[in-house]
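Ops channel
N.P.: pipeline sanity check, posting one input/output pair.
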């Protein structure tokens, strides 16, 4: 299905991943609408001047009536639901707000679309964290969702609720589960890649919450945006399904630091704090299912880190 000329709502479109998705949608000729709570002055969204090219709605997805009104008033054809409380540490400290945003916010999006009745596709951003701690070498879409910490549980619950809206109401919902996403425009320096970049630019010592041995998939943000688009374009066959998006480069934090040093030709000072609370040790997503639709990670870690560093050189302490 061609998205050109479609009215497309991106919740959280001014955020890190959302802004790259907005860029892809604009290139396709979609009419983009985005909700937002605030705008980072040095974000990717701001630097690319997307505010001049889309319709912006100051809206909290936890406010059902306002969200429902926005979807009906703008005659939304597709929804990409990315708005969320995205930080594991914040979720640990503030579980109530995280659950309200991630679980009830998702429910509000789905219920608004159900009541409106004309939305052709809804792509829901879940996470590899929705699986929780599984005893396997790689996660597949049929694995159980067993989050047991606030952030993980919020993703497990939202994921299951999205699935039930398809099964119960035949709402055209697709669920995406991504590994660690990195790239230009992530303002959350508590995350490992932005933290590394800031430490390099400022010549600071990077503090590692874990012991450095936790392994994750690392996905470049523009590959992620293209994955979202693909699922929407193929909504007739993707609705009701869940898709993992992983990489062939599942590495530890310490290996990520070494790779960054090699890519950028620098030395990174770091200190192992090992004070992370109950984090998942190893996560790698099997993405064979989505590869059958034609998606694969096009940007390897070396290329992605180089592009990401160029961005942070301009943004950190400008």
């Amino acid at each position: 299905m061609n998205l050109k000329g479609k009215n497309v709502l991106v919740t959280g479109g001014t955020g890190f991943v959302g802004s790259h998705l907005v860029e892809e949608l604009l290139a396709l000729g979609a009419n983009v609408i985005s909700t937002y709570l605030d705008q980072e002055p040095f974000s990717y969204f701001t630097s690319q001047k997307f505010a001049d090219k889309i319709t912006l709605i100051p809206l909290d997805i936890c406010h059902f009536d306002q969200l429902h009104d926005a979807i009906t008033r703008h005659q939304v054809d597709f929804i990409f639901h990315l708005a969320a409380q995205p930080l594991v540490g914040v979720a640990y400290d503030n579980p109530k707000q995280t659950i309200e945003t991630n679980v009830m916010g998702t429910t509000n999006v789905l219920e608004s679309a159900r009541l409106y009745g004309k939305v052709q596709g809804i792509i829901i951003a879940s996470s590899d964290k929705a699986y929780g701690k599984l005893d396997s070498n790689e996660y597949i879409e049929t694995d159980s969702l067993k989050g047991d910490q606030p952030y993980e549980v919020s993703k497990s619950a939202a994921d299951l609720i999205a699935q039930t809206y398809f099964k119960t109401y035949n709402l055209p919902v697709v669920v995406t589960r991504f590994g660690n996403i990195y790239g230009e425009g992530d303002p959350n320096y508590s995350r490992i890649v932005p933290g590394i970049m800031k430490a390099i630019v400022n010549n600071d010592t990077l503090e590692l919450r874990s012991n450095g041995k936790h392994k994750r998939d690392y996905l470049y943000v523009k590959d992620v945006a293209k994955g979202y688009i693909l699922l929407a374009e193929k909504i007739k066959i993707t609705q009701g399904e869940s898709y993992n998006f992983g990489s062939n480069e599942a590495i530890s934090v310490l290996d990520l630091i070494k790779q960054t040093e090699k890519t950028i030709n620098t030395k990174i000072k770091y200190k192992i704090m090992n004070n992370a609370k109950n984090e998942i040790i190893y996560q790698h997503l099997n993405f064979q299912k989505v590869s059958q639709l034609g998606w694969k990670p096009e940007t390897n870690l070396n290329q992605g880190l180089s592009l990401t560093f160029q961005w942070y050189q301009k943004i950190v302490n400008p």
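N.P.: looks fine end to end. DSSP finds twelve helices and twelve strands in the chain.
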